[in-house]
């Protein structure tokens, strides 16, 4: 039986691959459980410095599997499944592992939440990204209401969730959903290069920076400044920081 999500670790990079291309990598119950389990493992392993989320086939993620949804016997079952998938999203967003996303093709519905769980998204120039919940009589889930407005602003978030509009890859970058739009065939390679770049530098520093930014909304200004001060002090004591700051200082002295 084909696994709905693949997981490998190679030289510090955990790769999580959505693997239901015949269903546009949409989530059913089995996929949701695998997602929660694999994301928790990825961010807890000592040999993982960065995470890459990608997908098999021509599309990234179409959110929930509608065929599986119609077989659910109650709204409570839907709520339970969303909660399981949310556990995986929280594993990623709460971790100190920077997360890159390679999102080619279609990313809609809850797929937006999976994309937003990453910290640096690369999309294809031919990509289409949108909400499309209301067209099925549903409301945003999988962190879309929690993260979309933070990424693109409230007014633009409302434009997406209150219409059937989809964004191109270039528009996704312009709006702030993605960091880069590249030729469709290059999405995976570019996202991996970003993640490998973190690993080649000081992945722990990127992870701490990610945490500072993601948690800023939870703190007052004085609390955030105090956390910044604590974090930079902790970072400065690491071997990576000592090596990289000395190298930077040496280059500056020669300039």
UniProtKB/TrEMBL annotation:
Protein name as annotated: Enoyl-CoA hydratase/isomerase family protein
Gene Ontology terms: biological process: fatty acid beta-oxidation
The keyword Isomerase appears for this protein: yes
One Gene Ontology MF term: isomerase activity
Keyword Cytoplasm: no
UniProt keyword list: Isomerase
Pfam families reported in the protein's UniProt record: ECH_1
InterPro entries in UniProt: ClpP/crotonase-like_dom_sf, Enoyl-CoA_hydra/iso
């Amino acid at each position: 039986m084909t696994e709905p999500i693949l997981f490998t670790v190679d030289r510090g990079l955990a790769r999580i691959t959505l693997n239901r291309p015949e269903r546009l990598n949409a989530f059913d119950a089995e996929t949701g459980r695998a997602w929660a389990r694999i994301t928790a493992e990825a961010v807890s392993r000592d040999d993982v410095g960065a995470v890459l989320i990608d997908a098999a086939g021509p599309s990234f993620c179409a959110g929930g599997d509608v065929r599986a949804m119609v077989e659910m016997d109650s709204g409570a079952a839907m709520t339970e499944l969303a909660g399981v998938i949310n556990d995986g999203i929280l594993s990623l967003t709460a971790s100190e592992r920077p997360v890159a996303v390679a999102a080619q093709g279609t990313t809609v519905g809850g797929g937006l939440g999976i994309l937003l769980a990453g910290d640096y998204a690369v999309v294809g120039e031919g990509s289409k990204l949108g909400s499309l919940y209301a067209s099925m009589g549903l409301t945003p889930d999988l962190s879309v209401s929690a993260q979309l407005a933070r990424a693109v602003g409230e007014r633009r978030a409302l434009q997406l969730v209150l219409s059937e509009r989809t964004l191109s890859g270039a528009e996704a970058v312009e709006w702030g959903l993605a960091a880069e739009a590249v030729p469709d065939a290059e999405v995976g390679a570019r996202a991996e290069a970003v993640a490998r770049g973190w690993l080649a530098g000081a992945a722990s520093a990127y992870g701490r920076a990610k945490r500072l930014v993601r948690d800023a909304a939870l703190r007052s200004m004085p609390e955030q400044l105090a956390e910044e001060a604590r974090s930079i002090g902790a970072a400065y004591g690491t071997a990576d920081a000592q090596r990289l700051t000395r190298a930077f200082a040496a280059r500056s002295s020669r300039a």
